[in-house]
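Task: complex structure prediction.
Instruction: return structure tokens for all chains below.
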Amino acid sequence: MKSFRDIIIRAKESPAKPKVALVPGDDITALTPLLTSELADTLVPVLIGDREKINHILDETNSSSRCEIIDIPDIRHALREAVSLVQSRSVEILMQGKIKNTLFRDIVLHPRTGIAVDSTVSHVSILENERTNRLIMITDTMMNEKPTLAQKCSILESAIGLAHVLGIEKPRVAVIAALEYINPLIPSTTDAAIISKMGERHQFGDVVVDGPLDIDCAVSMEASKRKKVMSPVTESADIFLVTDAESGCCFAQVLGFIGRMPMAGILLGAGVPVILNMPSLSPGNRITELAVAKLLSER
Amino acid sequence: MIKSFDEIDRLAGQGDPVTIAILAADEREVLLTAQKARERRYITPFLIGQRDTILSLSDDVGFDVSPDGLIEEHDFQRIADTGIDMLFAGEVDIAVKGNIPTSYVYRSVIKHEKSAGGMENISVNTIWDIPGVDHLTNITDTGVNINPDSKTKKSIILNAARTMALFGYQKPRVAILSAYNGINAMLGSFTDARGLQVEMAEGYSDEIELLEETSIAEMLLGEGSGGMNLNRLPHVLLVPHLDAGNIFSKLDFMIDVTRRSFVMSSKGPVIIPSRSDTHEFTTGELAMGVVVSRLLKGRRERA
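Output:
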């Protein structure tokens, strides 16, 4: 798949019909793509919240028959129910509606009682690079401030899984650091070198991993030549594994908002794919997120 | 107010050339830069480095080296110190890194600032010219401070704001970037941002307008509807740390923007081209340095 359109088409064609839990179930912005997009018939919305409010919206769109409603008006209880549904594998996708991020985090991502116990949760930003006609993934763009080497490996494994779902059979990974050579005093460069060696030993499966690379060596063959760095992933990386969430966030936001590349995101490592509520996201990119989540749920 | 690199290039070509120390000029691409900048009447260069190599490469690229303009040095630190000595003594207006690791240049500038009682911290200003945007944007610090604490971030902001003031941005809009959004655990960058917003509200309100937003999306969306507007991008963006700054500043390789970077020392600009930059690109950075140097002189004379 080379574009967001390709992802949506693939998701639409796939016969599975996963259940999507939305909390709160009456958020019109989150509900719209679930009820009216071209993916609507391929998903089963499970709307958790105030039944009266939810029904009001469903009646307007004539969608009542396609949705399951769980009547829990209290938002905290609604979130706990969503966690329970994920844990019991009763839903395949979780979607955050209009709700305070900290509340969602405190209940859904609670380290002992949430949906991601003992695992590294990471956020992957997927961008459509129209210049190169390919999709790129940047990870982690949100969750891990100072990931350890082990956490970076988990973050990478999650992204590789996503790449496979997006039809990239042998993902190419650039492990980004501030320098393209290894400096024993800079952990991001040594971590990158270790991950690169692990990749060479097929510890991440059938992938090509190289690092440390600074961003110019990762994305420009000309720059790479001038720096005398020969990398098998220069200009062809599908996944950019960055040092931490700050770097990832800057990277993705600049490409998405200043570079105007279409951008979607998904939270991985939580048992089910989680779609977050990002007010800056366009309606079209929200549909892409649903499509990505649907494809991931079928793994 | 200078709004684009076209304006910078036009201004650089006006007036007398400025003097420049080239730190380690013993590389072809460096000499090509010097040649191009001299052709455009931007600079009068002083070449520091290995004499024989410089002369041999000069012949190759057709660069006429004046005997007074060549200073022989071999050791990297001595090369950097010689050029930065000249800058701080007022013998040249600008210094530019040639074929030498950046750390030697930073070390020398920091040492000179300290002994001159100059700037507390130095930082790299990466200026972006974004097509369709009505102002220049300074991304900082993209080169010196690996993990700046709150105090250092404050001085980086002021360095950048004062640099933008030279370009005519009298009270630049400044934002402190953070990846914190409430889904993730609290990040140090966000705590720093909130602390600095309080601290700098008093005492610096004449110099900068410090925004509350810490994410680019929030800044571009602004209040109300109307979608993303790139003109809302602040004049100064403080990145959380060097890793993020390095990525941000070089995304001109992926999107349609143009970049020029320099360190603003108390005596003049120090241009730090990347080894991946071409001589055409670095000539543009020199044009920026020339304009900054003249503006700085003008400000000193007025003071």
